[in-house]
Batch of 3 targets.
Target 1
Amino acid sequence: MQIGVLDADRTAPPTTPAEGDRHIIASGATGSWAGHADAVAAYQDGAWRFLIPKSGWCAWCDADGALLVYDGTAWTDVAGGAGAMPGSVAQLGVNDTASAPNLLTVKSNAALFNAVSVAGGGTGHMRVQISKEASAKTASVVFSDAFSGRAEFGLIGSDDFKLKVSSDGSTFVEALAIDQSSGNAAFPRGLSLTGVISPSQITANQNDYNPSGLGAVSVLNLSSDTLRSVSGLAGGAEGRVIALINTGSQIISLLNESASSTAANRFALGTDLTIAGKQAALLRYDGTAARWRAMSRPGGRETLAASRTYYVRTDGSDSNDGLSNVSGGAFLTIQKAISAVAGLDLNGKAVTIQVGNGTYTAGVSVTSPFVGGVPVLQGDTTTPGNVVISVTGDAVSVSNGAELGIGGFKLVTATAGSGLNATKAGRINVTGKMEFGTCATAHMHSSYAGQIAVSADYTISGGSLYHWWSETAGGSIAVIGRTVTLTGTPAFTAFANATIVAQIVAVSNTYSGSATGSRYSVTLNGVILSSGATLPGSTAGTTATGGQYN
C-alpha cells in the first residue's frame, strides 16, 4: 500500500500531532521515538504506532517533495537512480535535457538563489562556490553570445583572479588580474577614463567649484577666459580619482589650502598648482585628511636656453604659437601671450611680448609671479599712440607679487579702471615711452604695497581723476628725472593723490604743457615728495590728516 510522510528528518515527535500524521524517524531519535530510527511513526487514536520498513517500501516525503525508497538499510531518494550516491542524481535538467559534460542544465530567463533566514534555521548568508581540482585548473564563469564566449572571470589557470574578454569566443584578452596574496590589481591592456564633462568657460575665480554632473565623472575639462584660480573642488569621497584637463589656452591655478573654499573641498598640494593650457593634473581625494591631493602634475615648465619674443597682432589667432610676426603665427590677444610666458621658466633670459599696431579691447592681468625673470610688454616705443589698449576696467593690472615691464602703449579706460594698476605687492616697471589717454580712475594707481617705477619719458593726452594715485598700506609710485609732456590741457581732480600711508616720489622731472585741477592731494599719512617742484594743475594742492607734501 503506497504511503506518504510529512518529513524524514525529525528526531523527536511533534508536540501537537494530528490524527493520521506520519513521519520517518531520523537517526538519534529521543523521547517516545527513541530506538525507532527509519521506522514510520503513525499517530493513531492518540498514540504513536511504529511500522518497521522492509526493503522496497516506498514513501512520498512532503517536506522534500521526493519519493523515498527503503533499500534494507536506509531511505534514499528514488530520483538518485541506480548507483547514485544517497541524496544525489547523476544528471539534472530544468526545462531542458542534461547531458555530459553539462550534468546540470537549466533553461530559464532568470534564476534565484535565496538565503535561508536565521529565523528559518539558516545563517542568512548565500554563497555560490565554484571549486577546482588544483591551482593550474580553472574555476570561472563564462558569459556567451549564442554559446560563443565573450567574457570570463574567475581563477583561470592559476589562483589569481582574472577577467578576460573575447570577440570571437576562441581568443581571450586579459583585461584585469588581481594577485591572490597582495590584492594588487594589474590592467594589462590599459585603463580608460570615459566619464567626461566640459563645463562652461570659467570667467571668475572659483571657490567650492561644483559644475553640474561633477559627481558622476572621472574627467573634468576646464577652460578660462584669463588666468583664473580654483580654491576648492566639490565631490570628494575616499579614494576618488579625477583628471583635470585644461582644454583652453589660459592658465588655471589650483590654490593650496585656500580658506576661500570649505575645508573638505580644499587642495593639499604643498604649493599652488599651475595648469597651463593643454596641460592636465590627476587628483585623488584623501578621505582621512578631507583634502584633494595631486597624484600627478603637469609635465613641468619649458626652461629657456635663449631669449624669446612672442608676437601679438590684431589679425593673429590665439590658436597660433605666437612665435612669428605674421597673422598665421602671432597671437590675437595680449593675455594669451601673458599665459604663454607664465608657463615658462625664463631662466634669466630676456622675454619680450611684442604687440603690433592697432587697438586692443581686452585688458591685461598678471596675478602670479613669472618664474625665472620678468618679461617686457612692448608696443611702439617711438609712437605709443600706434598701439592702444582701450578697455572698461584696468588696462594693465599686476598683483600678488608679480612683476612686469611695459613700454610703447597708449592706455585708455572707460567707466572704471586705471591705465596701470599695481596692487598686492605687484610691480610695474615703465621701461619705454608711454602715452596716457583719458582714464576713468587714474593713469597710474598703486595700493597694498604695489609699486610703479617709471624710467622712461611719457605723454599725457587725456584727463582722469588722478594722474598718480597711491593709496592704502604702502602703495608707491616713483617717477624720477623724466620729461612728462601734457597735450590738450587734460583735467584732473588732483594730479597727484597720496593717501592712507602711501607715497609718491616725483623729483627732478620736467613738465611740458598744462593741466586743470588741483596739483596734489595728500591725506591720512600719505607722502608726496617733489623736492619743491611745481606739479601740473590750475589750483594749489591740499594736505590734511597727517599728509605730507615736500
Target 2
Amino acid sequence: MKRILTSLTLLLSTITMMAQGWPSEYEGVMLQGFYWDSYDATKWTNLQSQADELSQSFSLVWIPQSGNCGGTSMGYDDLYWFPGHYNSSFGTEQQLRNLIATFKQKGIGTIADVVVNHRKSSSGWFGFPSETYNGVTYKMTAADVCGNDDGGKAKAEADRLGVALGNYDTGEDWDGMRDLDHTSENVQTTVKAYLHMLLEDLGYAGFRYDMVKGYSGTYTGMYNADAQPEFSVGEYWDGAVNNVTSWLRYTKIGGGRQVIESAAFDFPFRYTVRDAINGKDWRKLKNASVASQEAYRRYAVTFVENHDTEYRSASYPQDPIYRDTLAANAWLLANPGTPCIFLKHWQAYKREISAMIAVRRAVGLHNECTITPHTQQQQLFAATAVGKKGSMMVAVGNNAKTFSCDGFTKVLEGYHYAYLMDNNMETAWADVASGSYPKGLNVTLSAVTQQSNAKIVYTLDGTTPTATSETVESGTQITIPSGNVTLTAGILVGSSVSGIIKREYKVSDFSPYTIRVYVNTDQVGWTKCNYHSFGGDGSRAGTSWPGVSVTNKVTINGRDWYCNEYSINSKNDYIQFVFSTASGSPQTVDTEKLTKDAYFEVLAEKSGSKHKLKYSTTAIESTKADGSTGNQHVYSLDGRYVGSDTSTLPHGIYIVKTIDSNLQSKSRKIIIR
C-alpha cells in the first residue's frame, strides 16, 4: 500500500508540474508557422517537407486553427471542432496528422490555435453544427451564446426567434460571430472534449488561445487544469504589463491548484521593440515587459511581429516594424521568455536567425534567464544575458557594429546588431549554423577564450581536429566546399585542442526555392481559374490541359488574386503557364519563363482567340499589357521589400530600384523621407 501511495503521489506531482502554464527554465524557441493568407506557404504538406530544417532551430511550431471553417479561411471563424471536419484551407485531416507526427518524430511540438472565444454558426444566428465524436454528440444552442453578444443584436434576434440566450459575457464583447458563454456547462464540456481531442487524438503538444480578452482567464485555467497541456499561451492583446500579468493570475484556479495555468504573449515586449525601432531611439528597449518581471518571465512568450501586426497592404497597413528586422530578432533571441519567430522573418533571414538561435543555445539562455543593461544610448543599446552554460552580450542599434567589451568575443554581427560571447566559455565558434546553403558559403571562425595567443584548428571531414590540423587566426573566414561537409573546429593553445564544436553543412550549386503566381480575373469575370503549367528542366512535372483548378485566393489592395505556389528545383528550372476557366476556354496567351514571384491580370483584350495578360512583379505596380515595366521597387535598409509608393512610407532611409522588363535593376538610389 505504501508503494502504491508513493507512486500515486509522484504521478500527481508530475501532472501538477506539467500543468503550470509553461515549463520552467525552458530553452526552446517557437516559430509562428504562418502569416495572413499564407495558404500556400502553410500547407500541411509544405510545412511537413521542412521538418528537418525547422528541427535544427525550433522546438515548437504554432500552426493555424486546423478545423473546417466552411470555406477559405485562416481559421478564426471556426465552425467545426472535431475530426470528420478537418479538411481545412491548409490541407486534409490526414495531411495534418502526418505533419504533427513528422514534427514529433523530429523533436518539434505542434501548437494548436484554439479559437473558443467565439464560433461561427452554420445557419442563422444560432445554428451551430452537431458533431459526434467517440460516441458523444456535441451541440451548442442559443443558450450557449452570451446574453449581451454583439452589443445587444444577438438578444434582438433571440427575441424574434423566441429563444433564450446565456449569461452576460465574462470578457470583452466582439461584434462578429457568436461570443460563447463560458459559464455554460455545455460550453465547458464541449471545449474540454475538444482540447482533449487536440492533444490525445491529433497529437498536438499544446495550445495558443485566441482572443482571451473575450472571456475570463479563470476559464483558460479551468480548461488547462483539465486537459493538462505542457504548453499553453494566451493572446491577451494589451500593451500594459499589469494587464497581461493580471490575466496570468486569473488563470489560477481553486481546488488546491493555485498555480498559473498558461503563458501569455508578451505584447508589451513587442511594443518596446517597435517603439525603439520606429522611433529611432534604442533606449526604449529598457521599457517594462512581461519578460522583464522576475515573477512572470517564465510565462512570457516574446515576439516582434505576428499576423495581426505585419504589413499586409496599403489598405491594411496594420502596425508593423518598418526596419531593422534583424536587430529586432537579435534582441528577441537574447532575452528571457520563450521567443516566437515570425514565419516571414524566418523565410527572409534563415541564415542569420538560425545563427542567433545557435548562440542562444550555446549560452543556455532560457525563459527565466536574466538580462542586464550595459549601454543605454539613442544609437546603441547593449545588455548582458546570463544562461545555464555561460553569458553573452547583445548590442543593437546604429553603432552595434563597433561595439566591443573586455572579456567578450564577437561571434555574430549584421546590420545594426552584434552578439558577443563570454571568453570564460572557452569554445571555438562558427558564425553559420548547421543547414543547407548555396555554393560559396563563407564561415568565420572565432576563438572564445581567455587565452590571448589562441588560434583555431579545423577539419572539413568530421574528424576531430588536432594540433597539426589546418590552423587559422581567430576571426578568419573560410570557404566551405560543395557537398555534405562536417566542419569541426577547436581552440588551439600550444599543442592542446579544446572547446570543439561541430557544424553540418549541405552546400549545393543551387538551393531549391518556391515562387508564387497570382492571377486576377476581374476584367473578364471568371469565377474559376485553372493553371496549366509546363516547361522547365524536367525536375518538376507539368499538368495536362486544362490544368489544375486553383481555389486559393488572397486579397491585395481590395482585389482578389488566385494564388498558387511552385518549386524551382535547379538553376536551369523555370515554369510557364496558360490560364483558363475550368473548361479550358476561354484561355490566355502563354506566359514567359518564370523564376520568381509574378502577378498576372487577365485582360479582356484578345490576341487572336486568346486573352492577353498584364504582368508585373508586385500587385501594385502599373504595368503595360505587353509586360514591360519601368516601375520602382522600394526596400528598407535591411533588405525588406516595402512597396513601390514612397509617399505612403514612414520617415526613414530607403533604397529605390527601377526594374526593367526582364526584372533586372536599371538604376538604384537612396532616398530619405
Target 3
Amino acid sequence: MRQFGNWLYNTFWANWMRRGATLLGLAAAGVLLWVFLPPIGEPDSCARGVEKHGGECIGVNGTGYDFGTPEIAAVARAIAKENEEFVGDKPHVTVAMMLPLQPDIAAERAQLRSEIQGAYLAQYRANREENTPLLRLVLANPGDAYGQQARVVDQLGDMAADKRDNLRAVTGFNLSLDATEQAITRLTNDLHIPVLASRVSADDFANPEKSTGKDPFPGLARIIPTNRQQADALASFHRGLKDEDTVLVKDTRPHDIYNDSLAKAFGRDEKGPPGPKDQPFRSPSITDPGETGNDFTLIAQNICQSSARYVYFAGRPVHLRLFALKLADVQCSGKKYTIVSGSGSATLERYLSDDDWAKLRGGGKEPAITVQYAAPGHPQAWNKELSGKDTAKARPAHFTEPQEEMDKLRALIEKRTAGDIGPVRLEDSRTMLVHDGVRTVARAVVLSNARTKGTVPPLNRVSDMWQRLEAVNRVRGTSGWICLTNAGNAYDKPVAVVQLNPRIKKLEFVGIGWPLGRPQPQDCRVPSGAG
C-alpha cells in the first residue's frame, strides 16, 4: 500500500513538473517574441531612431544606417565613425541633415550622395579647425517629397530638448515644395530650432528684408541665391536680352514652389517689342515625364516659328532634359537655341545618355541646343576667374579666398584624409554648397560661444548669429563669400553660369554672374537696407 502511495505521489509531481516546464517554455518564448517582434499594429524598426511607415524608413540616425540606399553607405559609415570615435561624449552640438534619403532614380541617388558627402566633409573640417563644441551629424529622412516630415520634425524637437543630443540646427532641404515649407515653418516657429537652408532656392523660403512684423521663418538662414537673384545674375551676365529674343516655358503643376518661383523670376520685364507668349505645361510629378513629351513637341514647333533664341525654362531636370531633346528634334532651318534654367538643374547631365548628347550636338559646327543654368558654384570657377591675373586689383579677395577653400576641400578628397566616402563629383555643386552650409552652422556655433568657450549654446543664441555673419565674420565658402543680411539671406552671392557641352559630354564653367550686377563689397560688409 505504501509503495502504491509513493508511486501515486511521484507520478502526480512528475506530471506537474512537465506541465510547469512547458508553461515556462511558452512564457519564455512569449517574452522573446515580445522583445524581438513589435506588437501588432506597431511599426517595424529599420535602425536606431528609424521606423518603417508606408514602406519608407522614416526617422533620424547617425550610427551608419544607409536607409537602403547603397550609394550613401560609405559616407554614412564615415559619419558614424566621426560621431563615435572623434565626438563621443565630448561637449558637442548635433546638426541634422534633413532630405529624402530613399530616392528611386539613379541620378537622384548620386546627387544625394554628393550632398551628404558635403555635409560630412564640413563636419570633419569643423571638428579639427574650430573651437569646441564639436559637431555631431545625423541624417533625417522625411520620406519621398517630404511627405512624412511631421514625424521627423517631432523627433528633431525631442532632440533639441535632450541634453544628450543638443540639436542646434537643421540643414539640408533640397526641394522647394509645400511639405518642405511646412517642415521649416514648424521647426522655426513652433520649436525655435535654427534652420540653414542650403539648396532650396524658391523666393518663398526667405524672410523679407523689410519686415512688416513677424518673420514667416524666424531663425532661418539661407546661403543659395533665391530664384529671383539667380534670374538677376543671369540677366546681368547676358547683359540685357530683348523681350522678342526670349520665351518662357513653365511647369504649372501645383504645390511645386520651385517651379512657381522660377517662373515668376524669369517673367521679368525686358526691353524692346513684346516676344512670344509664355508656353505652360503640366507635369504629373517631380520625376515623372508623363505626357509632357507631346506638349513639348507642340511647344517646340511654336517656338521654332517665333523670334525667340533664348528659352527660359521653369521646371525640374527630368522635364528639362525631355524639352531640350524635343526642341533639338524640331527642324528650325538651322536655328540654334540656348535654354536657360535655375539651380535645380545642377544634376541634369546625370540624366543624359550618349544618344541624348548626340541629339543636343546636332550636325553643325555649333551645338543645336545649349543648356545653360545658374549653379550655386563650380570647382573651376575661381581658377578661371583668376587665370593670368597677377595684380592685387585683379585678384580680389572675393575670388582668392573661395579658391583657397576649394583647394582645401579638393585636397581633403584627393588624399582621402577624411576616409572612404565613395566617389566624389564636385561639378554639380551639391557637395560644395552643402559643405558651405554646414561650415556656416559651425561658424555660428563658434560665434555664439565667443565668451563661453566649450559650452553648448542655447538655440536662440545660434540663430542670433546669422546676423553676425558678414565682414570679418563672413564665411569663406567654396561657392563664394557667405555674408548674411539681417533677414538671414545671402547678400549678392555669386552665381556660377555653367552649360552642358555636347561635344565633350561635360558640364563647363562659363562665367560669374552677380545678382546686383556688381561684385560684393570689400570684406563683404552688408550695406544698410540690403536685400
